[in-house]
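Re: weekly structure request thread

Next one in the queue (254 aa):
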Amino acid sequence: MGNFLSDKSAQWDESHRLWPMPDIPWIITQTWNNLLFAHYPVDLKVLQSLIPDELTLDTYNGTGWVGIVAFRITGSRVRGVPPLPGLANFPEINVRTYVTIDEKPGVYFLSMDASNILVVGGARTLYHLPYVTSEMKVDYNHPFIKYKSNRLDKSGAALNCSYRPISDPYNAPASSFEKWMAERYCLYTVNKRGELRRCDILHQPWLLQKAEANISLNTMLSSQGIPVESDKPILHFSKKKKVRMWPLVNPFER
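Done, posted below.
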């Protein structure tokens, strides 16, 4: 059990974060694998209508962005508990935009797809996140990763693509788009009482790669009424990221 509780590791250094971690224990850890980041420019008025009034929309060089992030989670577990069979490993897709409050930049999720109905229910209850259940399949056919997802609700939102990295790994340069979109250490959500909450996240800075993708079907945005201003997304890849997540806190409390 000691291995599950130990925090004495360089991978959990927090000196790169813009603000301190909450003075409470983390509660969930997991590993994100073979991530595809596909970013689309979106009209600012559209994005503003999709986020809570208390949040400020973040832009890069005056442009608003929505990211579709496809990946596979492994080793997901609650603090002090080993990974549970059937709950620890599953594919996921996030549709997100970028926001800030009190000089703490983060992400706001417009939708989240996962293949495990228990994970979906637990995340909706614990973190008030917009998870839905989808049929999902990830195949590793070197050098491409093939990803297929079909949402089971009436929207039928789907993603069918294959992707791979096409550059050596690198750390995002200061002031770059990559650093702006990737180096965010919290998410914002709204609970059932309509109150804004923040979840702090800890991981080491992203090691990214340029990517290419063949996207044969993508209705993840159009199913939500989000028109994109370009059908050619900016693509990035990351091999692996270990993360920890903290309980929700009131972002307005010091």
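The chain is about 10% helix and 50% strand. Residues 1-6 have pLDDT under 50 and may be disordered.
Next request, please.
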